[in-house]
Design a protein that fits this description.
Two copies of one chain form a homodimer. By secondary structure, the first copy, chain A, is mostly helical. The first copy, chain A, has helices at 3-31, 38-57, 59-71, 80-97, 100-123, 126-147, 153-161, 167-189, 206-220, 257-274, 290-304, 308-321, 323-326, 331-338, 355-370, 379-391, 417-436, 440-445, 450-459, 469-477, 484-498; strands spanning 227-231, 237-241, 244-249. Chain A folds into two domains: 3-97; 117-500, Neurolysin, domain 3. Helix content of chain A is 64%, strand content 3%. A three-stranded mixed β-sheet of chain A has the order 1-3-2, with helices on both faces. In chain A, a hairpin with a 2-residue loop joins β2 and β3 (244-249).
Chain lengths: 500, 500
């Protein structure tokens, strides 16, 4: 190994150690920190984040990168060293393009905007939030100018979350989805008597929910020797290395779905982080993008966790845990309950069919505002019109409409489409997995998940950040990212349930 | 404020933020970290500790300190600024005197020595551990040479834990204690029928122990909005600022003392940390020494928690919690049970009377080994002879003797005497508190602790690290540290219980 590469690695490992320490502090903040600890924690996070950032954008890192790249010229593209140099170069260029003053302004803006958004949402008062949304648009534009783009402003923004992804590709993805989903939503809307989730709203004792969800999570393949589960208001997964990846869950004793499917969702994220190659440099030892991460959580939550095969195995077991609430419910009723679909106002509560239309509304609005085609003051009407067009419903208030999500108050734009990238990729990966390993569906029906997890480990997880999302998708499935498998999955599954 | 002082403060705050982040990582490691996370955590801790150390010993800090000292010459000694400069100068000189290579050698030694000590203790094989103990002695000598001392090697070592304390002062303290304690131990030994702790060894359900201990802790004055309690194998208190101070407890369902008095002990540490002045610079916003810290834990655990007044209030309450185990036990029997005294082999299980003779054995042995008066191979015999002389018992094995404590395997010498400094100081402070606020004993009898906590807040806690231990003791009690109050306390309390 070249001397420059060795020096670079030492620095990058230190930076990764600081960043993963920041991760632990963030986890603690949401799970166990006493209320009084906020200010102390803010100070710790600010110091550590600043030091890690300064260590990374140090010109010396740029020099070491250049020297290491020259010295390792001709190295195998797939090698850890070549990948580290390639990925770090990309990170370095991106980090050094954003002026510290803009980062500070963004942080300040999000600190100011968040409480205003909370109040605006509570009071259904969009006007209150409008100037802050305007500022988010402006700051996002400036961010995009610094980051650089050739075609669309949004390219620069999505690139931070989904490296290499282009706006036109996302538009193509949504076009396909819109074409197939909008009529599907209409058909399902007309057949609401075919499924309801009443049985999930009976009483389910928290401790028993927790035991059952942890059992399922363990059997899916989440390694609790390298992880743990706790309660939190907003469920999340946080990994500090492949050997310490933690998830959180919230419980609702009168709605079985929240904890059970939430745990499978977070376990999907966690198994990705636990599955990255043990030999990867720390900087590469994590998921490659938000969209690919979401593909893992959705795959385990929905494609596995909401499948009939899965419940063929688990339904008798959950009936034993909750005999009072499920003893009189047959498998088919339960299966329809957990897969009930209907247009609704709130994204985070949306089902597999309607979910992507929610992110589409946001994707289109963000682009229109960024491109100056839509005035912020007109955004609520635009939101409602799109909801009517895609989901056939109009939010009665902005609280149930444009004010529902926290993201824009945090100065974030370009994020929402990664959820849908995750959804369609989950189906694309699963289709390839069962093509490669045909026993997977039958295995799931017997509560065995190692064949599926093994395929994901080898084809997705092990690579960590070595490849950009599209590279990874192409390598894993032989095709670029596309919605064909997802649309087919929805058609088959919901066609059967809703009879169309 | 001078520019140099402002720059210094900014640097010191960053360093304090990193160190308190290290504290959170250490807490998590002992309380919630999954088993697999050890290596990741070691990497995080190593990077953060190294960065904080490098930032502190930076020559620029020395220059800023010198400039700030000149510029603030004549400032009030008691002011935060003058105290910060004074204390930081002392820390800086100490830190810069120890070569990085010696620190690395010590860390390496303790990593190697710890598993050997575990095995030696398990196998009752002192010979196995002897070379490592020899190395601890040698490294401690070298450490002392670097730190500097005028009289005794031990001066340099104790100074790290108890700034300014001298070996001759500790010897004087132990001489007084020995003179009064050794005969007292003999008298108590002859009157063992006067107290036994059988009733504490009945069944006490863990959840109820926890609820009661937390209730007591809260009522003593530990603020749970700025703290929390969890389970851990080795109970400890860890503070990240006055606003986030956490304690841990272990439970034994067949021994009531462990959790109940352990919680009061840790709450004492925690109330010290929670009580430091809100206006103090972060570097000064913590306890001033191990001994003063231990005085707070021992004061609440023993002087308050094992007093008859305290149980006059709480005994009916704990009887209600454990009617099956305590319903037939009267207050006097319970009071004698929690204050049972008897010579025993293990320091951490020793009572108030015998405890200091355990640390004396170690203090004398450390000095004799450091001064070259005792060969390490002869240390077990010396240990046993001292145990016989001070406690009237001889350990049957080295496992129950010289191999019992972890400290020497960690390369630590000079630590044990701080426990006894804490013990005698607890009584010295309490005596002054009740002289100043005569209602304190009666308040305790009514479960009211704010008068005592208020006195401690004002006279001890609020100052943080502004004053060295002896300065603080002199300010708070008007006298230098001495064992008179402690001896008197033991005589009165145990004279009454054991009838001498």
């Amino acid at each position: 190994m070249s001397d420059a590469l060795q020096q670079l690695k030492t620095r990058l490992d230190d930076i990764a150690n600081i960043n993963s320490a920041v991760g632990v502090l963030g986890w603690d903040q949401q799970v166990f920190m006493p209320e009084g600890g906020s200010e102390t924690r803010a100070g710790q996070l600010s110091t550590l984040s600043r030091i890690a950032h300064e260590m990374f954008i140090d010109p010396e890192v740029g020099k070491l990168l250049a020297t290491a790249a020259t010295e390792s010229n001709g190295a195998d593209y797939d090698s850890n060293d070549a990948s580290l140099i390639r990925v770090t170069r990309r990170d370095y260029d991106q980090s050094t393009r954003i002026p510290a003053a803009l980062v500070a302004e963004l942080n300040h803006h999000s600190t100011m905007a968040h409480p205003v958004w909370v109040k605006a949402r509570a009071d259904n008062n969009f006007k209150l939030f409008a100037p802050y949304l305007q500022k988010t648009v402006e700051l996002s534009r400036r961010m995009a100018e610094h980051l650089g783009y050739t075609d669309r402003l949004y390219d620069a923004l999505i690139d931070q979350f989904e490296p290499g992804m282009k706006t036109v590709e996302i538009e193509a993805m949504y076009d396909d989805l819109k074409q197939s989903t909008v009529p599907m939503i209409q058909k399902i809307k007309d057949r609401q008597d075919r499924a309801n989730d009443d049985v999930l709203r009976r009483f389910y004792e928290e401790a028993k929910q927790s035991d059952f969800a942890v059992r399922v999570s363990r059997e899916l393949g989440y390694d609790f020797n390298r992880g743990r589960q706790d309660r939190a208001v907003h469920p999340f997964c946080s990994g500090f290395s492949r050997d310490d990846v933690r998830i959180t869950t919230r419980y609702d004793q009168h709605f079985l779905q929240a904890a059970l499917f939430g745990t499978m969702h977070e376990s999907g994220h966690a198994m990705y982080e636990q599955g990255v190659g043990a030999d990867l440099p720390k900087r590469l030892a994590t998921g490659t993008s938000l969209g690919v991460h979401e593909s893992q959580s959705r795959l385990w939550e929905n494609i596995v966790g909401r499948s009939r095969a899965f419940w063929t195995h688990y339904y008798p077991l959950i009936q034993q845990v909750f005999p009072d609430s499920l003893g009189d419910v047959d498998l088919d009723t339960f299966y329809r309950a957990i897969n009930k679909s209907a247009p609704s106002f709130i994204r985070v509560e949306a089902d597999e069919v309607t979910y992507n239309m929610h992110t589409l509304v946001r994707f289109e609005l963000e682009n229109e505002m960024l491109d100056g085609k839509l005035d912020v003051m007109d955004a609520p009407d635009a939101w409602n019109a799109k909801m009517q067009a895609y989901l056939g419903i109009t939010p009665p208030t902005d609280t149930l409409g444009i004010l529902q999500d926290v993201h824009w108050s945090g100065g974030l734009m370009g994020y929402f489409s990664t959820y849908t990238i995750g959804n369609i990729l989950s189906a694309q990966l699963y289709a390839k997995a069962i093509a490669d390993v045909p026993s997977i569906p039958a295995d799931i029906g017997q509560g065995k998940f190692s064949s599926l997890l093994g395929w994901l480990n080898t084809n997705v997880h092990a690579h960590g950040r070595k490849y950009m999302p599209q590279e990874l998708v192409k390598r894993a499935t032989g095709e670029p990212l596309n919605s064909r498998a997802y649309v087919q999955y929805l058609n088959t599954k919901y066609g059967e349930i809703y009879g169309f």
